[in-house]
């Protein structure tokens, strides 16, 4: 009986040890599985955050281009083209080109200027301007305000008194807008291609 009792105890001890080892392995497997699942979840979250940042960057650039830079660039380009025609209007009061130029100024140049100012005032946050662009945009707003006031006051002689009234035209505005528009467009295309390949 002693043998049976010792053997039973040893058997119980072996079973208990095996059960403890089994439980330890089971618990370790469970913990390892949880750690792997957490890691996968963290990686998935990082991947999703990365995708969201990428999409947000793409959307930000798209808005900058569609709501600020392309409208500014195209309107300034129109101004450049039309302004050359306006300067051709001649100095003589009865010159037909002068009358055409005055109509172009009132019907096209001023409304175009006012639209540009509206874009600047409502969408400048999209431009993320540096100091040079901000100074050029503010100079442009100042120029347009004085230009509108001069026309409203009846100063229509571009070659004389009106030019003396006007604040200087910000010569660096168009090159700055053009440079940023083309750079953002290149960045947008690169990001869009990368997004489509991902």
Shape: rod-shaped
| Ends apart, CA distance between termini | 75 Å
* Rg (C-alpha, Å): 36 Å
The number of distinct helices, counting runs of at least 4 residues, comes to 5
Instruction: Tell me the quaternary state.
Output: single chain
The biggest beta sheet, please?
none
Percentage of residues in helical conformation: over 70%
- Tell me how many strands there are: 0
Could you name the ranges where pLDDT drops below 50 across 5 or more consecutive residues?
A: none
| Secondary structure category | mainly alpha
User: In the residues, how many domains can be counted?
Assistant: 1
Query: On the 0-100 scale, what is the average pLDDT?
Result: 84
SSE succession: HHHHH
Task: Estimate what percentage of residues fall within beta strands.
Answer: under 5%
Task: Write structural notes for this entry.
The chain has 198 residues and is mostly helical. It has one domain (54-197). Helices cover 86% and strands 0% of the residues. It contains five helices and no strands. The protein has helices at residues 2-87, 96-127, 131-152, 161-165, 173-197. The model has no long low-confidence stretch (mean pLDDT 84).
């Amino acid at each position: 009986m002693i043998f049976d009792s010792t053997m039973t105890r040893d058997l119980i001890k072996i079973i208990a040890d095996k059960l403890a080892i089994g439980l330890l392995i089971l618990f370790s497997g469970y913990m390892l599985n949880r750690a792997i699942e957490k890691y996968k979840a963290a990686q998935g979250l990082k991947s999703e955050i990365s995708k969201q940042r990428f999409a947000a960057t793409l959307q930000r650039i798209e808005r900058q281009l569609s709501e600020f830079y392309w409208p500014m660039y195209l309107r300034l380009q129109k101004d450049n083209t039309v302004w050359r025609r306006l300067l051709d209007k001649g100095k003589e009061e009865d010159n037909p080109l002068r009358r055409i130029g005055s109509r172009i100024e009132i019907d096209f140049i001023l409304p175009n200027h006012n639209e540009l100012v509206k874009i600047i005032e409502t969408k400048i946050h999209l431009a993320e301007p540096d100091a040079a662009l901000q100074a050029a945009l503010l100079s442009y707003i100042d120029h347009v305000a004085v230009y509108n006031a001069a026309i409203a006051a009846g100063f229509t002689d571009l070659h004389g008194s009106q030019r003396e009234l006007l604040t200087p035209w910000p010569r660096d505005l168009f090159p700055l807008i053009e440079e940023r528009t083309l750079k953002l467009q290149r960045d947008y295309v690169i990001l869009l291609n990368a997004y489509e390949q991902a």
